[in-house]
Design a protein that fits this description.
4 copies of one chain form a homotetramer. By secondary structure, chain A is α+β, with helices and mostly antiparallel strands. The first copy, chain A, has a single domain, classed as Roll (Thiol Ester Dehydrase, Chain A). Chain A contains 2 helices and 5 strands. The longest helix of chain A is centred in the N-terminal third of the chain and has 15 residues, at 26-40. Chain A starts with a strand and ends in a 20-residue tail after the last strand. Chains in contact: A-B, A-C, A-D, B-C, B-D, C-D. The B-C interface holds B 18, 23-25, 27-28, 31, 54, 56-64, 66-67, 115 and C 18, 23-25, 27-28, 31, 54, 56-64, 67, 115.
């Protein structure tokens, strides 16, 4: 699979008093999307963590296009654009049916237990989407 | 000091689309109140954690009397009702000026690194409020 | 259905640096459990909210028995013990397979848009579990 | 004042089981930094909201340079780079003493109650930092 699709329902704890999802809470949905996408492709980052190979978010860019509201179900779409020597670039979107709500680029850096960059394990290359 | 007073301002991230503070988020304020109360009395739970002495919440009871809203400043009031052999009973309230918003009883159990109950260090007895 | 069962997977955003789920975050899972239990029984609290009938948490009591950790899947079990004139009493538990992690009693009060108690709509009586 | 400085202490609820602050939680600190910076400059966004003038985050970019941990106190530094016709560009940093932890660019768009862009009120121009 080269695109991950995760359904998420919006609950009260996702929203704020502006009536829509709080801007930081979408980052939780994006985390879940990346985790599930890796697992669906047979890559268990928790297992790597036990071996001292960590993936940390080094950079995130989010463009908010339209809000999600309480009770709606959204889809978190996840793909990998590029696997570099020490980093992985994810492209993610959140949609409500065909409506685009949010676009994001997230960069993971692979680090050791002293937070020093190290090479990304070979098997991650299988995550990259065909063009 | 036998009563801790912590001022907290309510921001968007505290609220939900009902227009008021989300019920679970008050528990973050209560955590901060307990931590600061201990520190003000010279007790550093983080230092204990480094020595393998942990304090975990075993029970919480909260009565919600009135809501807090975005932009308000509330006071978290913390005192200790009782220090038992392996537990500590906190009484906490959140107020907006004289108005009572919330009352809570929280029980900490003192555990070792295998989560087994152990005796509360002697110095905690100084936290107990005079009647 | 008289017992609601909701599966939840634990992600990084649920945990804290103690290595386990943060005590307030279980209250989000409990919220989701109550909402889904009502929906499965044909009761849409969002629809009631649009008509000015709100359900607010007046009291919660939680006993924490064992921690949940990152990557685990837990089950939120929800039933209604009692429907009173203006309130509803939920009994909830969170389990990891057969292991009980948490027990909770939550009281909802039914209020109008001025936060004054009002009678619980008749159809909620169908939520009560048979003994 | 052309730079806002907000002190924040890191509590358990800010962290995750990786032992450091969860990546989305810094966005709460950044929200607080922007709000306080505006207030210190005599601009009350809550008052504008009551008049139907909303400020929504349209874009955020965050570079994470080093982690913050439980018990540390960090400083959220906020300044405004530019006030456009319908948008405001914030530059924010989070530091622990002299150590840079995080850099961020946040774009607010000024909208009416139908979420349509509208002109930024004149007084916001006073927020822009001198070069």
């Amino acid at each position: 699979m080269t695109i991950g699709l995760l359904k998420k329902k919006i609950y009260y704890h996702d929203t704020d008093c502006g009536g829509v999802v709080y801007y930081a809470n979408y980052l939780k949905h994006l985390e879940e999307g990346r985790t599930e996408f890796c697992l669906e492709n047979g890559i268990n980052t928790q297992e790597y963590a036990r071996q001292g190979v960590w993936f940390v978010v080094a950079n995130i860019e989010v463009t908010y296009r339209a809000p999600a509201r309480y009770g709606e179900t959204v889809t978190v779409e996840t793909r990998v654009e590029k696997v570099g020597r020490t980093s992985i670039v994810f492209k993610q979107r959140i949609l409500r049916e065909a409506k685009l709500l949010l676009e994001s680029t997230v960069v993971w850096v692979c680090v050791n237990t002293e937070f020093k960059p190290r090479s990304v394990p070979e098997e991650f290359s299988r995550l990259v989407s065909a063009a």
